[in-house]
Amino acid sequence: MEATMQEIPFSIARILEYGATAHGSATITTYAEASPEGPLPSPESESTTFATIGARCAALAHALHAEFGINPADRVSTLLAEDTEHVESLLAVASMGAVFNPLNRHLADDQIIHVINHTQARVIICHPEYADRLATLLPSCPNVTGALITGSDPSHVRMARSLIRVAGREDIRVLGYEENLNNRASTYPWPRLPETSPAAVCYSTGTTGAPKAVVYSHRSLWLHSLNLRTADSFGIRNGIPFLCCVPICHVLSWGVPLAAFMTGAPLILPGRTIAAEHLAAVIENAMPRQAHGSPGVWTALYVHLSL
After folding, report:
1. Contact in structure between 301 and 275 (CB atoms under 8 Å)
2. Which of 91, 134, 145, 204 has the CA that lies 20 to 30 A from 114?
3. Residue 15: which of 200, 201, 142 has the closest Cα?
4. Can you list the domains of the chain with their CATH numbers?
5. Does pTM surpass 0.85?
6. Residues in contact with 174: Cβ distance below 8 Å, sequence separation at least 6, in sequence order
């Protein structure tokens, strides 16, 4: 006898589509650093609905395929802050069957170069603030053929293109993230993948020798996301805002962004810094009900608030 229940492979694309439709009004809010004006300055924030993110992920997948030839099994790295574009990159790259690789910007240059070359990444999605760092890395990364610079300011793209060319990589195609999402289709024919296909690869830190790769399958991330919803784990729930203080390069922010799309939990992202004074301002403004972070994050926040 065989089971008569439907068999649909677990995939990141299903998480994305479900979150964008069933929880389309939930939001991701990214906070930017504020200029210090008093003990708790109000940081600027920008919110995007899950429905909009679903459409933007489809547009990003179209851009990666059309402009850089990214196909299933290709690797795409990111040099980004903890922001909405980083979550979009995770969801879009994995959903289209490619492999998402977040780079840890706190590593030494030789370690990041090792990671890029070990994954054989073809494209790097980069925050404009890190473009100068990217330019120093690329001469040692022969597999990289393209870069997407986030934001909508054309001057940032021109500056990144100039830095990369001065570094000797005139062959790399440097494009703007937002301009390449504009006018793209808001749906994408997400491929039906074996659930054991690789979805993401992260690299260990604090080990001997070079950083070590850990490859996550679509199935493993799906099951982990389900687990994060349980009472014995984080208990991530619909409508309960979650502040992510763990970087996406660390186990995909411990898997919380994917679980949030499963449940409709609003995400709060701290942007480029998790400094105590910034987090204090974010918490005061966003009022999250749940959060995660390393012990050092909370110790620093406690000391800051105790002064």
Report:
1. no
2. 91
3. 200
4. 12-306 (3.40.50.12780)
5. yes
6. 146, 147, 149, 157, 160, 161, 164
